[in-house]
Design goal:
The complex is a heterodimer of chains A (263) and B (206). Chain A is mainly α and 263 residues long. Chain A contains 10 helices and 2 strands. The relative contact order of chain A is 0.15. Chain B is globular. Classes of the chains: A mainly alpha (263), B mainly alpha (206). At the A-B interface, helix 2, helix 4, helix 6, helix 7 and helix 8 of A face helix 2, helix 4, helix 5 and helix 8 of B.
Chain lengths: 263, 206
C-alpha cells in the first residue's frame, strides 16, 4: 500500500485527524460485539476507502487479502470455537483417539465457529481498510509531523524518518550482495537456501550500511539536528477537520451507546 | 476485556519499573546522532529481513511462528550487540513497529502495547542481568524471554480481547514453544553474526 496522489477531502484532512480516527476505530474494534454494529463500522470505513477512488489493482489486492483473511479466520475459528451450543461438521481427531486426542481434547470443525469467524473478520477488515485509507491519503512525512505535534519525541521522529530513507538503499544493497554471493555459488532456493542467504547477506549489508549511517549522522549534525530548529511545514486544524472529528466522535459514542442499550 | 485493560496497565507498570531502575542507577540513556542513525538502520533492517519470511515461509500453517521468530530476533540482537545500552531495545522494537505502521500498515494503536511489552521485558532483563548479550547464556535467556512474552501476550490477551478470536490451549502451547525455540536460535545467530560487524566497526574504520 502506498500514497495515492488524489484531491479528495480525506487527502486534505490534517494528519492528526486521521491519527485520532485510527484511535477511534481501534476503540470500536475492541468494544463492539454485535454483528450489526460490526457491519456498520466496516461499511463506514469502506465508504472512506471508496472516497479515495483507489485504482482497480488496489481494490483487487485488498479484496484478495480480505478473502484470504476471511478464509483463514473461518477455518481457525471453526476449529477453535469453544462456546456452546456448537454443531460438529467434521471431526479430524476424536477425543478418545489415543495420546493426541487426549492432549487436544479432540479436533473438530464447528458450524457456529465458522459463522463466528466470518463475523469477527469484520474487525480485521475495518482495521485493514482504515490502515489503507491512512497510508493512501497521507505522506509518511506528514504522518510523522502529525505524531510529533501530538507529543512524540523529536528523536523518535528522526529515527523513523531516517529508517524510511534507509529502506530503498538497503533493498538495493541486499540485491547487489545477494547477486554477488550467487555468482560465487551460493544457492538460495528452498528453506535451507533462504536461511543460508540470510546468514551470508546480513554482515556485509550491515557493515556497508553503517558507513552510510555515519554520513547521515554527520549531515544531521551539520544541519543542527541537536540544536534549535524551525519547521518547514506547520500543521493547521481547519473547520473541515473539526467537523470530521466531531462527526466521527459522535458516531463512535452512538455505536457504543446503541450496543449498551440494545444488549 | 478487563483482562486486556489489566494487561495494558501491567505493561505501563513494567515500563515504570524499567524507568525507575534506570533513574536510581543514574543510567538514563542518552543517544548520539550516530547511535540514532544506527538504530534507524536496524528498524529498516527488521522491516526488510522479515519481508521474505512474511510472504514466504511464514505462510506455512502451524509452523509459521518458528520461521518468523528467527530472522526477527537475529536482526534485533545484532542491533543490541552493536549499541549495548538501555533504551536500544525499546527504540529498535518500537521504531520498527512505528515504521511499518507509517509506511505500510497504517497507524494501529492496538499493536502498541504488544511492541512495548516486547521492549520492556527485554530491557528489564538486560538491566537486571547487567549484561547486553555478551555471553551465550545471556542470549539464551533473552531469546527465551522474547519468545515467551510476545507469543503468550498475543494468544492470551491480544487475540481473545482485541480480535475476539479463540485458540485452543494446545495450539497456544505449540505456537509459544515454536516462538521460544525460534527466538533462541535467532539469538544465537544474532550474537554470532554481530562479532564480525563489531570488529569491522572497531578496527575497520567505519
Amino acid at each position: 500500500m502506498k500514497y495515492l496522489d488524489r484531491e479528495t477531502f480525506i487527502h486534505r484532512l490534517d494528519p492528526r485527524t486521521k491519527i485520532l480516527l485510527g484511535f477511534m476505530v481501534a476503540i470500536l474494534i475492541v468494544v463492539l460485539k454485535k454483528p450489526s454494529e460490526l457491519f456498520l463500522l466496516f461499511f463506514s470505513v469502506l465508504i472512506l476507502f471508496g472516497i479515495l477512488r483507489p485504482a482497480k489493482s488496489t481494490v483487487k489486492a485488498m479484496f484478495i487479502i480480505m478473502i484470504t483473511a476471511l478464509v483463514f479466520t473461518m477455518i481457525s475459528q471453526g476449529f477453535f470455537y469453544s462456546l456452546e451450543p456448537r454443531t460438529i461438521i467434521v471431526t479430524i481427531l476424536s477425543p478418545d483417539s489415543g495420546f493426541l486426542g487426549n492432549i487436544t481434547g479432540g479436533i473438530s470443525m464447528y458450524r457456529e465457529g465458522i459463522i463466528y469467524g466470518a463475523l469477527q473478520s469484520l474487525r480485521l477488515f475495518s482495521a485493514m481498510l482504515l490502515s489503507a485509507v491512512i497510508v493512501m491519503s497521507t505522506y509518511p512525512s506528514d504522518l510523522l509531523l502529525g505524531m510529533e505535534s501530538m507529543g512524540m519525541p523529536k528523536r523518535i521522529g528522526f529515527v523513523i524518518t531516517v529508517s524510511i530513507r534507509f529502506i530503498p538503499s538497503l533493498l538495493d544493497g541486499a540485491r547487489r550482495i545477494l547477486l554477488a554471493q550467487r555468482l560465487r555459488g551460493l544457492k538460495v532456493k528452498g528453506i535451507r537456501g533462504w536461511f543460508r542467504a540470510f546468514y551470508r547477506l546480513l554482515p556485509p549489508l550491515i557493515i556497508d550500511s553503517l558507513r552510510n549511517a555515519r554520513r547521515i549522522a554527520l549531515a544531521a549534525e551539520v544541519r543542527a539536528f541537536t540544536g534549535e530548529r524551525t519547521k518547514l511545514k506547520e500543521l493547521t486544524f481547519s473547520p473541515r477537520d473539526w467537523t470530521f472529528l466531531g462527526l466521527s466522535t459522535a458516531g463512535m459514542f452512538m455505536l457504543i451507546l446503541c450496543q449498551e442499550i440494545l444488549l | 476485556m478487563n483482562l486486556y485493560i489489566g494487561s495494558v496497565i501491567f505493561i505501563a507498570i513494567l515500563g515504570g519499573i524499567v524507568f525507575h531502575l534506570l533513574w536510581t542507577r543514574k543510567a538514563i540513556p542518552s543517544f548520539s546522532t550516530m547511535d540514532l542513525t544506527t538504530i534507524a538502520l536496524f528498524c529498516s533492517l527488521l522491516y526488510i529481513t522479515i519481508l521474505p519470511f512474511k510472504f514466504g515461509l511464514s505462510r506455512i500453517p502451524i509452523i509459521q511462528t518458528f520461521f518468523f521468530a528467527i530472522p526477527y530476533t537475529a536482526t534485533l540482537f545484532i542491533g543490541i550487540c552493536l549499541i549495548p545500552r538501555a533504551g536500544t531495545t525499546t527504540l529498535i522494537i518500537c521504531g520498527h513497529s512505528l515504521l511499518s505502521q507509517v509506511i505500510s500498515s497504517g497507524i494501529k494503536p492496538l499493536w502498541w502495547p504488544y511492541a512495548l511489552l516486547a521492549s520492556f521485558a527485554l530491557e528489564l532483563y538486560f538491566i537486571i542481568t547487567g549484561n547486553y548479550l555478551s555471553t551465550r547464556k545471556n542470549a539464551l535467556g533473552a531469546g527465551f524471554l522474547r519468545g515467551f512474552t510476545v507469543y503468550i501476550y498475543f494468544y492470551c490477551f491480544s487475540a481473545p480481547y482485541i480480535w475476539h478470536q479463540f485458540y485452543a490451549p494446545w495450539y497456544i502451547f505449540i505456537q509459544t514453544v515454536q516462538g521460544i525455540v525460534g527466538s533462541i536460535i535467532g539469538a544465537f545467530i544474532g550474537i554470532y553474526l554481530s562479532k564480525p560487524i563489531i570488529n569491522a566497526v572497531r578496527y575497520g574504520g567505519i
